Structure formats: structure tokens, C-alpha cells
């Protein structure tokens, strides 16, 4: 999904427009979406841009184009930007009541022609799993930034990052990465092969289902801690099998449920997925009504349903009905073998096999998920960029891994000093 630049509003002498909307949406939900962006962007502005001493006006620009952060920094490196990490928070969203509003990281980027801040946002709801980000740009550099943004979009297009659309009834549809392959889903080999066989047999089994009077649908439940591959499974599924995806907004009423199932019926085969089940139910999602729709929907074109959750112990009364799920899979934290495979994929030839194993053992010791290891890789390579190094050293990884492990288990002040991760 490619973003469209909104029309400029007319400037006044002293009051520049507060936002240029780069989100591709034409719906009444746009205002709510913009507010979702503006709170963390305002926080980043007030925290890291001194409006008194700086005396420069800034635009707040938001985008929901899929933008893997590693490729973003790769593009910045190619264009000779200096990168300064002002704030970074690993993996998990802020706990309830935290003063940091869904901000994953704040980075200051500067070159000879352009100076701006990049705000990486945590996704506030399951339907926004493609990721969002914002930019703080000086008003005097808007045109220069837009030229940069066009080059950035072209770079991502060349990488085949922008792909198909996930439909969200009653919410805002979004794009997903269409260049993923099944190997991008990391899991225990036995579990992964079992899932692949189940999906393959389902997708080619239309005649079998029809001849035996069985509805052509399958329902999978994936459980496990954060970062163990539940979302990666869904993304790989959408990209590898080219199913038509639909999901639900956090605030989902009966009309949106009906709309989702009608949309799924119109395409075949389709994927209807529901992430963070326990959180959705806590927010008021009517799970009983969902299963009522699921058990009565006509599925001539094939329907694959994937539900993910961290913990379902409080939902067993609803989920315990016989035959409600065709397959239940528990994804666990990676062991050393799986960690070696994933770290080797991330770091490539930067480290020898023995050193990769040393890193993997430390990751397992600190109970790192796949998401933590991906975060580790990003921080290590960002440290290289910041220190103008060609390759990371093992001691760089050890320092950053230690700090990341402390942050993972800490409830202290969430503001992280730059040098904590970027010391050479």
C-alpha cells in the first residue's frame, strides 16, 4: 500500500500547519488515527526538541507504510546520514499508566542537507501489526524532507516491501510485507513442519471437504510468550500462501464481525486472524459472538482462522468447546539450536559460527525471544553505524546484550541514555 501525500494547507506567517497527513485513508476513522499518532509525536517533540532555545517550527508527519527499521537505517547509511539514538525501548509496550505513549524509539538523523527526528511507534492494536512511524521535520526543510521521503518509498519499493492489504472492518486497512517466505517464521522444526503440512493439506483439500460434507475451514490457536513467532507466522502465511487477509479492530462490534465474515466469504481462500485474544476480550471483544459467526458461516471458498494469545487460562470456559480448534500449537522461547539459526540469519558473515553460538547461549540464558534477538541485531548494527565501524565486534554484542537483558527485566525509568547502547 503506497501512501499518498495530502494536499498542503495554506501557510500563515506565524502559524504553520500542525500536520501533513501521509496516511492513505479516506474514512471518518482518520481523525482517531491521527490522534493516535499525535500523542507520541507530541511527547517526542516536548522531550527532545527544546521549543524555547531551538525557536524552530516543526511539522509532525505520520505514515503507516510498512517500513522495517533495519532497511530504514540501511537507506540512511547509503545516504550518509548521522544517526543518534535519543530514546530506545525494547520489545514490549509500556505498562498501564506509563508516561511514554507507545514509543519504541526516537532517533535524530542529520546530513549536510536535512535534519529531522524519526519516531518509531509501538502498535496500539492488533490490526496495526504492519507498524507505524512519525517524523518531526523543521518547517523550513519540508520540501527537502518530502524529496527524501519519495526516495525512501522508491527504495522500499525496490525491496518489494509494500505489498497487499489487510482489510479491517470498521477500522483502517493497512499494507503488509509481501516478500516474506516461510523461513522467516522461526519455530521448533517439528512444530513448524506440522503447521506447514496442515496448511498445505487444507488449501489443496477442497474436493475432500466437499465430498465428505465437511465445511472447508480450519481454526488454529497459537499461544506463547511475546516474541515467539505468533505474528511472524501470520505474516509468513499471508505472504507465502497469498490468502486474502482480514482482521478486527480493537473496538469491534457485531456489525464489524459480520462484515469481516462476509468479506472472508467473498474471497477464497481467505485468512481471518485475531491477535492478542486475551487483550481483545479484556477490551470488550465478544468472543462468544465471534464463535457463533464462525460455526455458522458458509465457507465455499475456504476459510483459515488463526487466533493468537499469550495466555488463555482465563478463557477456557469459552475456548473449551469440542472441535472449536482444529489445531492448537504452543510456541516456546527458542533454545540454543534455534537461536543459532536465527542469529546466523540476522548477522550473516559478521561473526564466526563459534561466536554466534556464544551469543546464542547468552540469549537463551537471558530468556530472549526471537523478537529480543532481532532487537539485539538492530542495536548492534546501529552501534556500528554510529561509530563508523564496518563490522561489529563480539564485545559490542556482549555490552549491548547485557544492557538489553537488564532493560528486559527492569521496571525502572524507561528513558535510556544513548551511550548505553552506542558505546564502542
What features would you highlight for this structure?
alpha/beta, 424 residues, six-stranded mixed β-sheet
Explain this structure.
The protein has 424 residues and is α/β, with parallel strands linked by helices. The protein is built from 16 helices and 13 strands. The strands form 3 sheets. Strands 1-2-6-5-4-3 form a 6-stranded mixed beta sheet, with helices on both faces. Strand 10, helix 8 (254-266) and strand 11 (270-274) form a beta-alpha-beta unit. Helix 8 runs parallel beside helix 10 (287-296), helix 12 (336-347) packs parallel to helix 14 and helix 13 packs parallel to helix 15. It starts with 18 loop residues before the first strand and ends with a helix. Residues 1-35, 91-100, 124-131 and 411-424 have low confidence and may be disordered.
Compact description:
With 424 residues, this protein is an alpha/beta fold. Helices cover 42% and strands 17% of the residues.
Which segments are poorly predicted (pLDDT under 50) over 5 or more consecutive residues?
Answer: 1-35, 91-100, 124-131, 411-424
Given helix and strand content, the structural type is alpha/beta
Give the rounded overall mean pLDDT: 75
Question: What is the strand content?
Answer: 15-25%
- The assembly state of the depicted protein chains is single chain
Choose one word for the global shape.
Answer: globular
Give the topology string: H per helix, E per strand. EHHEHEEEEHEEHHEHEHEHHEHEHHHHH
Number of continuous helical runs: 16
Name the strands of the widest sheet in spatial order: 1-2-6-5-4-3
Number of strands: 13
If you compute it from the alpha carbons, what radius of gyration comes out, rounded to the nearest whole angstrom?
22 Å
- For the termini, the CA-CA separation is 39 Å
Amino acid at each position: 500500500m503506497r501512501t499518498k501525500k495530502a494536499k498542503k494547507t495554506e501557510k500563515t506567517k506565524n502559524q504553520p500547519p500542525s500536520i501533513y497527513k501521509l496516511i492513505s485513508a479516506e474514512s471518518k476513522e482518520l481523525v482517531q488515527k491521527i490522534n493516535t499518532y499525535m500523542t507520541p509525536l507530541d511527547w517526542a517533540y516536548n522531550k527532545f526538541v527544546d521549543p524555547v532555545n531551538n525557536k524552530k517550527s516543526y511539522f509532525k508527519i505520520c505514515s503507516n507504510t510498512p517500513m522495517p527499521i533495519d532497511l530504514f537505517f540501511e537507506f540512511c547509511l547509503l545516504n550518509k546520514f548521522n544517526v543518534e539514538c535519543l530514546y530506545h525501548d525494547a520489545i514490549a509496550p509500556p505498562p498501564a499508566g506509563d508516561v511514554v505513549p507507545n514509543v519504541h524509539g526516537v532517533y535524530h538523523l542529520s546530513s549536510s542537507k536535512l535534519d529531522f527526528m524519526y519516531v518509531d511507534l509501538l502498535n496500539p492494536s492488533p490490526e496495526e501489526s504492519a507498524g507505524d512511524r512519525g517524523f518531526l521535520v523543521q518547517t523550513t526543510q519540508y520540501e527537502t524532507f518530502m524529496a527524501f521521503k519519495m526516495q525512501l518509498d522508491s527504495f522500499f519499493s525496490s525491496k518489494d516491501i509494500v505489498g497487499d492489504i489487510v482489510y479491517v472492518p470498521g477500522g483502517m486497512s493497512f499494507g503488509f510485507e509481501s516478500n516474506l517466505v516461510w523461513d522467516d517464521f522461526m519455530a521448533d522444526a517439528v512444530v513448524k513442519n506440522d503447521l506447514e503440512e496442515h496448511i498445505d493439506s487444507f488449501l489443496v483439500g477442497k474436493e475432500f471437504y466437499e465430498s465428505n460434507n465437511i465445511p472447508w475451514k480450519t481454526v488454529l490457536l497459537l499461544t506463547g510468550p511475546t516474541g515467539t513467532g505468533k505474528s511472524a507466522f501470520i505474516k509468513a502465511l499471508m505472504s507465502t500462501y497469498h490468502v486474502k487477509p482480514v482482521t478486527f479492530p480493537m473496538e469491534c462490534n457485531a456489525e464489524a464481525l459480520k462484515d469481516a465474515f462476509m468479506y472472508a466469504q467473498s474471497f477464497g481462500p481467505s485468512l481471518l486472524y485475531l491477535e492478542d485474544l486475551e487483550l481483545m476480550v479484556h477490551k470488550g471483544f465478544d468472543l462468544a459472538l465471534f464463535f457463533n459467526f464462525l460455526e455458522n458461516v458458509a465457507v465455499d471458498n475456504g476459510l483459515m482462522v488463526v487466533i493468537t494469545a499469550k495466555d488463555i487460562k482465563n478463557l477456557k470456559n469459552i475456548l473449551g468447546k469440542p472441535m472449536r480448534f482444529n489445531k492448537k500449537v504452543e510456541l516456546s522461547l527458542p533454545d540454543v539450536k534455534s537461536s543459532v539459526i536465527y542469529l546466523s540469519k540476522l548477522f550473516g558473515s559478521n561473526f564466526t559460527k563459534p561466536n554466534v553460538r556464544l551469543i546464542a547461549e547468552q540469549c537463551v540464558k537471558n530468556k530472549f525471544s526471537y523478537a529480543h534477538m532481532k532487537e539485539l541485531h538492530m542495536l548492534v548494527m546501529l552501534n556500528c553505524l554510529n561509530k563508523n565501524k564496518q563490522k561489529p565486534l563480539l564485545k559490542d554484542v556482549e555490552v549491548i546484550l547485557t544492557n538489553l537483558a537488564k532493560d528486559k527485566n527492569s521496571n525502572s525509568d524507561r528513558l535510556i541514555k544513548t551511550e548505553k547502547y552506542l558505546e564502542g
